[in-house]
Design a protein that fits this description.
With 660 residues, this protein is of the alpha/beta class. The chain has helices spanning 40-48, 81-86, 92-108, 115-135, 139-149, 166-180, 196-208, 220-226, 245-280, 287-299, 366-373, 408-413, 424-430, 447-459, 477-489, 501-504, 526-545, 554-559, 561-572, 580-619, 625-658; strands at 2-11, 14-24, 29-33, 55-59, 66-69, 184-188, 212-216, 229-234, 237-241, 328-337, 340-350, 355-360, 380-385, 391-394, 465-469, 493-497, 510-515, 518-523. The strands form 4 sheets. The chain has a 6-stranded mixed beta sheet, sandwiched between helices. Helix 5 (139-149) packs antiparallel against helix 6.
Amino acid sequence: MISINNLSVEFSSQLLFDNINYVINPKDKIALVGKNGAGKTTMLKIIAGLQKASSGYVSVPTGITIGYLPQQMVIEDRLTVAEEVRKVFSHLAEMQSEIDRLTMSLAERSDYESDDYHSIISRLSNLTEQLAMASSDNYEAEMERTLLGLGFVRSDFNRPTAEFSGGWRMRIELAKLLLRRPDVLLLDEPTNHLDIESIQWLETFLMTKAKAVVLVSHDRAFIDNVTNRTIEISCGKIYDYAVNYTKFVSLRAERIEQQMRAYRNQQKQISDTEEFIERFRYKATKSVQVQSRIKQLAKIERIEVDEVDTSHLNLKFPPAPRSGDFPLIIDNLGKAYGEHQVFDNATFTLRRGEKVAFVGKNGEGKSTLVKCIINEIPYTGTLRIGHNVKIGYFAQNQAQLLDEELTVFDTIDRVAVGDIRTKIRDILGAFMFGGEASDKKVKVLSGGEKTRLAMIKLLLEPVNLLILDEPTNHLDMKTKDILKQAIKDFDGTVIVVSHDREFLDGLVEKVYEFGGGKVLECLGGIYEFLEKKKLASLQELELQVSGKKPLEKSSESKENAKSLSEHKEERTSTPPRLSYAEQKERDKALKRAAKRVEEAELQVTVKEKELADIEAKIAAGDVAQEIFESHASAVKEVENAMSVWELAQTEYEELKKRYE
C-alpha cells in the first residue's frame, strides 16, 4: 500500500536513516521501535508528509488516506467537545462527490481484470462504507462510543474544549482521528495521556476496527496486544520482524549475538592486517603485500553493532531508614474543589514495605490524594504519617520542573550536600550522563533523559516512603525495566501512580481504584484487579444493551447493589423490544462471553495437564528441590485458571439470564 523507497535523512552531518526500504501493507499493525533519538518520530512525520527526507521518497497510492497523531499539538478552543469532534464529518459532501465520480468511471470501463479496475472498486467500497457510517443515524452514536471509550462522560460533550487540560485535548484529537477511519493510522505515543481503561478500549479499537497502523509507544503491554509486526530503527538501518514486540526482543538478542561474533571476527581481521602493515611497512621485499593489505583494509565494510548498553545505568535506591509499622494511615479522607467532590470517605492503611498502585481514570483524584499525603493541599478527615517516615516524591511533571538553562552537572550540584558532592560525576555516569553528557544543558535533553535526571535528584536523600506519579512517561523500555527492578529491590514503602500495566505487573501487591468519588481497595496485582473489573464492565454492558443510560464509573457499576437489584426487577417484567442494532449488540456480547468461557476452560485443562505431569515425576521418585518448587507454582496456576474460568462462567450465565 505505502512504500518507503531508498529513504535517507541527514541532520547536522549526522546520518539518521541510510537508504531505508520497506512497505506498509493494508492490514499491518506495526510497532516502530528503537532507542531514544533513533528517528522514530521523524519516520512518522515523513510518512505523514510533514517532513522531507534528504533523499528517497514515500510512495502513497491515490486515494489512500493517512491520519497522524503527534506527541504535541495545538488545539483550537472555540467549540465544545461534541462540536469539535463533529468537524470530522464535514467532508461528507466531498466523499459523495468522489463516490459519484468513481461510479461513473467504472461504468465507462471494460478492463474488469486490470489492477486499476480493482483499485477503483476497493476505493469505492471504502468510501461507501465510510459514508454509510458517517451519514447514517448512527454517526452520533459512533461519536459517543468513541468519546466514552476514551474516558469522557456525557456531561463533558457540551463543555468548551478550553476547559480541558492538554492531555484531554489530545484525547479529543485522537477521537477525531479514529472517527475518520483513515487507511493508515500513525500514532506517536498515543497512551501517554490515557488511563488503563481507555488504553484497553483503544487496544480493542485498533485490533478490530483500524486498518493499517504504525505506532510508537513505550507501553509494552499495549504494543504487544495491538501489533503483529515490529520494525526496529538502529544505526540508520531498519530490521523488520513479522512478530510482536516480546518475540522481537528474543529474535533481536539472537541477531545482536550474531553481529557481535561477526564484529569480533572482523576486528581480529583488521587488527591482524594492521599489524602486518606496520610490521612490514618499510621492507622493500614486502611492499607489494603491504600495499595489497592497505587496499584490502580500505575496502572492508565495518560492521556496526547497536547494542544498548544498560550495564552503566545503575539505578538503585539508597537503603530505607526504618519507619514505623504503619507509614500511612488514612481515615474518612475527602477532598473537594468548590462543589466538586473529587473523592470522599477514603479509608486505608499502608504497612511498612508494601508496594501499592493508584489507578483509575484521569481526574478521579489519584494525584490529588498524593498531594494530600505530602501536605501540599488541604483536605477533610484524618491523614497520619507514621513514625520516622521520610517521603520521596516524584511528581508527574517532575521533568518539566527542571531549570532548562542549567547543565546536567549544575542541576545535581545545586541540590547535593555533604560528601555526596564529591561523587556527582560518578552518580551522573551511573545514569548514562558520563563525560561530555554531564555538560549538556537541560533544554537539549530528550524527555527520557530529563526523567532520568529528575530521578537522580530523588535518589540524593534516603527515604522510606517513595511516591512516584507516572514515573515511566518518556522512559524507553530498557530504562523502565531497570526502574521497575530498583523499586522491587527497595526495602521501603512505595506508592505508584501509573497506567502502565506491564510496569505494574509483578511490582505491586495491592491496587487502589479511584472512581465515582470513592477509593476502593483491591488485593492482588494489576491483572487480578482487571479480571475482577470484568464483571462490572459486563453489568455496564447489560445496561447499555437494555437502552438504559450506562453508569459513568465502573466502580459505581460494581458497588451500587441497589441499582443492580432494580435492574433485575425490570428484567422480570415484560422486557422491552430490542431494535435490530440492540439485538446485534446482544448477540455479539453473548458470543464474546461464551468465547471467554471456552478460552478459560482450555487454560484450566492445560494447567491441570502440566500439574499432572509434575505429580507423575514426583511419584516416579524425582525428589529434587526444583520439582517441588515447580509443583507449588503449578498448583497456584491451576487455582488462578479456575478463578478466571469461574468468573467467565458467572458473566456468561448472568448475561444469558438477562435475555431469558
